[in-house]
Amino acid sequence: MEDIQTASTPKNITVCNSREEGSLKVAELIANEIKAKQEKGENIVLGLATGNTPKDVYKELIRMHKEEGLSFKNVISFNLDEYHPLAPEHHLSYHRFMDEQLFNHVDINRENINIPTGICKVDDVEEHCNSYEAKIESLGGIDLQLLGIGRNGHIGFNEPGSEANSKTRKIELHEVTRGDASNEFEGLEHVPLHAITMGVETITKAKKIVLMAFGKGKAEIMKQAISEPMNSKVPASYLQTHRSIDYILDKEAATLLSQTH
Ligand code: PGA
């Protein structure tokens, strides 16, 4: 593992040998944060992500729960996003994803799980988004936010064009995002047109952020997210000035960084 630090962009970038190594590192970091709060008798507010990227992190957290007794009783979770409209029972909903990949296998209290709805009526969306935002605030904000990154630079479903001060809202999905989802939805026409997502500001208000990127398909966007001036075309670029962010990459996702630094 090597740390790449640059003078112009002084950030925490860890390049791991593999996705597995990166995932174990992130799982350990999350477990340590959970345990540190437990020792103080406090809850922890975790911001959670879906997609392929965090799957091995969740697998390791489940292993830690089963084999090492890591408890999730003090965890309050907020997921980044959900397709809209999409029923929670749909096999590709993020509600289902989180149940299958993590929640069904650990001891988290169901009432502590928060995921944006995929089913509220269009007229009720704004109120839902405002109360999602307010609930995070009322709990003192997100302690640790886990992020992947889309090939178009989205974080959550903050698609290109999302501004730094954006909050939880309904958004139209970008063509790259829908294209990337078209295989699992078995056709572009079945991919929802919209989603509800935490905003860029909702994310950047988190006390700590860990962004993971694995595979060569993420190399170009990681270069842009880290090295180019912050701009709404690449929403992940807004993370550059966050006071506590760790970028965890595998070698492939870091290919273009190594060339430029
Ligand atoms: P992926 O998606 O983890 O499936 O690559 C990441 C994202 O879109 O945020």
What attributes does this structure have?
eight-stranded mixed sheet; alpha/beta; binds 2-phosphoglycolic acid; about 20% strand; about 260 residues; three-stranded antiparallel sheet
Describe this structure in a few short sentences.
The protein has 261 residues and is an alpha/beta fold. Helices cover 32% and strands 18% of the residues. Helix 2 (55-68) links the parallel strand 3 (44-48) and strand 4.
Walkthrough of the structure:
The chain has 261 residues and is of the alpha/beta class. It has 8 helices and 11 strands. Helix content is 32%, strand content 18%. It has an 8-stranded mixed sheet with strand order 1-2-11-10-7-3-4-6, covered by helices on one side. A 3-stranded antiparallel sheet has the order 5-9-8. α1 crosses α2. The protein is globular. About 3% of the residues have low confidence. The structure holds 2-phosphoglycolic acid (PGA).
How far apart lie the N and C ends? Answer: 17 Å
Catalogue the unreliable spans.
Answer: 4-10
Structural class: alpha/beta
Bound molecules: 2-phosphoglycolic acid
